[in-house]
# Entry
Amino acid sequence: MSPRLTATDDLPSAVARPAYRREAHGVGIVHLGLGAFHKAHQAVATDDALAAAGGDWRIAGVSLRSTAPSEELTPQGGLYTLIERDADGTRARVVGAIAEALALTTDRQRVLDVLCAPQTRIVTLTVTEKGYGVDREAGGVDLSHPAIAADLAGPDAPVGVAGLLVWALGRRRAAGVAPFTVLTCDNLPENGRVVRGLLVDFARRTAPDLADYIAAEVAFPATMVDRITPARGPETLALAETLTGHEDAAAVETEAFTQWVIEDRFPSGRPAWEASGAIFVDDVRPYEDMKLRMLNGAHSMLAYAGFVAGHAHVRDVMQDAPLVALIRRHLTAAAATLEPVPGVDLERYADDLLARFANPHLAHQTYQIAMDGSQKMPQRIFAPALEAMRRNQSLAPFAFAAAAWLRYTRGRGEDGTRYALRDPREAALATDAADAEAIVAHVEAIAGLVPPALAASAAWHGAVVERLGRMLAQGMTAAIRHEADGAAAR
Ligand code: CS2
# Structure
């Protein structure tokens, strides 16, 4: 058995390591949501920034529920191996940006202290779409969200994002400490604005004097984040050991590509993330729409259709020619709903996405992407569908994606095997209805999911019903083939 990764001085020369003295840099960032994506994205950019420009910008990473990330990272002093893989090869690097790894459930006092520390100038977040407890239709808090409900009932003992951040901002203000900047890195449209609305509304309900203060004094820059990072499997750990000669319980595997577009609003400073290729812009929205509608939209479509058709991984989907033709069609249709994106050629972006999806080294499960559809479909599929409707463009690609999702929400594979939906709105999505018309009508009636203007369109409704009907009657593989043939004939 190899020694555990605890230092960087005895790594093989091919393994890159922090090009700075870790102990020389204090903590300046608290990150909430210490999962694989943070370790593959923002922590790596921070590692690059520390090497290029220094600063007290190391990260105190916090997981809000699980203790696994801190149990894996703490014995390694926060070090972990990042394995980057694409058609050009496999590279390992050891990342040093995480100074400490905490779990809210077991390190509560330390988490609260570091959120209040004057040295903490940024709080970054990757808690997934459902983690915030936002009412996506009305803005502000979703009263039915468990963490929101708990924190509204006990705002002095917060457990969720809104509760913790409002509590900490209140404590800082009382102590005369400047607020931290809140940088959300989840795939939500206008993510900065949405999280601002969440915190202001939460404050209004628990500490009204804080609401205006947060609205006026706290910066919530928007971001577009991108790096395909599959959930880790045992193979990742074995590969890390082979590459580094060390046992590493916290290793992560990801693609070589990485992108970060950030609105440059950091009143208390920020790391030199441009050193890692991050771009700073005034308006993130065009990049965000591009990424949500093209990458994530195609991802969701291929995940639902692919999972039901029996493809476990995205790379397997990319071997299914008719489905690849539909992914290409989807990317083209999604691109046609966008405003121009500064400096980006959308055709090339689409080609690059197809190559990224085909990455043979990444075991990215369709079932992973399929999770939480109710939180993803509105920005990924319904928003561009609405835009396509306004522009008189074909609805077929989006209707196919919606139908594939609805087929997936039946919770049974084509051989009848049950699978867990893993969606916070699972109960609302459930229906005994068996025919396509009734299923589509049921889901269109759920508040805050399908935009009313889309649901009211006979063309949209009919297109979804027709496709779901075919998926249910003939099976997903036949439905994919039919759709691809139809698309080719047009
Ligand atoms: C994926 C994303 O799981 C999903 O829903 O679409 O996690 C995707 O891999 C990332 O957004 C890529 O940046």
In short: The pocket of D-mannonic acid is lined by residues 187, 226-228, 295-296, 299, 368-369, 376 (CB under 6 Å). The first strand starts at residue 27 and ends at 32. The longest helix spans residues 285-308. The mean pLDDT is 97.
